[in-house]
Amino acid sequence: MTPEAEDKPGFAARVMASWRKQRASRPWLNHLVRAASHYSSRQADLLAAGITYYGFLALFPVILLAVSIAGFVLSGQPELLRELILQIRVAVPGDLGRQLVDAVILATEKRRVVGVIGLVGVLYAGVLWMGKLRVAMQTIWRGAPDEANFVKDTIRDLLSLIGLGGAFLASVALTALATGLTSFVIDLLGLSEIPGIRVVTSLLGILIAVAGDTLIFLWLFTRLPRMHAPIRRILSGAVFGAVGFEILKLVGTLYIAQVTSSPALAAFSSLIGLLVWIYIASRFLLFAAAWTSTSRRMVDLIVAEAAANDPAEPVIEGPRVPPLKRPTEGGPSTSAVAAGLVGVGAIVGAVAQPAVRRWWRRGRARG
Description:
With 367 residues, this protein is an all-alpha fold. The chain has helices spanning 3-7, 11-25, 27-41, 44-75, 78-91, 94-109, 111-142, 150-188, 197-222, 231-259, 266-293, 296-309, 334-366. The protein is built from 13 helices and no strands.
């Protein structure tokens, strides 16, 4: 072997050198690799599996609770109940239609019992799900969860579940109200015939949904792991998670429609498809947390805090960065700010549409 051949690097060395050069010249690629490495080092797939199991388990009491609420609504609206039964009989003839009608009547008659069972089930399974989500977030952000305290953890998880559920419902209501108000204003101004106006309305609804999801992701990335970090350093990660979650919802809708295309396997396929979607969404949630925690802004903050706490200890960037400090007590929480913003938006949306309608009718009456 000649000296020139001995000095020439091998194929693997050249590939690694080229890969390091690509990472050095492309910050987004370097960030993506750091996030993937961090995600893998925290065993996030196993954490996502636990979140998926308890999330799927909580769906059944949620359905019971929804059936109970529908029963209370139908019991006070006998005309609506008769119309629903008539539509079921027309749409689903035969034994299956009669079974559905019997189920609706039973849900109306047993609404209190079904509601209690559903509520207890939601609280039990929901607290377990929130506990798994909290442990996963703390593991992603700090490397390990807090020391377990059954009573304190249960109370915190229950309050977190109520807060997250309220914020989620408020976000959905805000999106629906804003979209409906936009459609009403378009019809009011006579713009409904303009080509592409409905596309603009749909895009606006998506943007509003992303804004609501961003508030929820900010809450998830700060309060659950109990991290002391400025919101401006986490905002980009929250937007990343919100956009990705909206894409997952769109893909999930198409996916569920595909797996339920066979009438014979509709019920079984729906459950499997829903389980798969929850697992994918859980993995994405944890990857978004890993992506946020390994961003340049967060790494710089972690390095600065580690250097201030112990200047003699070397700091290593990457997946094994030192954990952030726990938050100090006092001051409004991110969850309170997020819930307040979403609540104000929902109230404005609820009040604006009737006010615009009254103003329009008065104007026409005077004219």
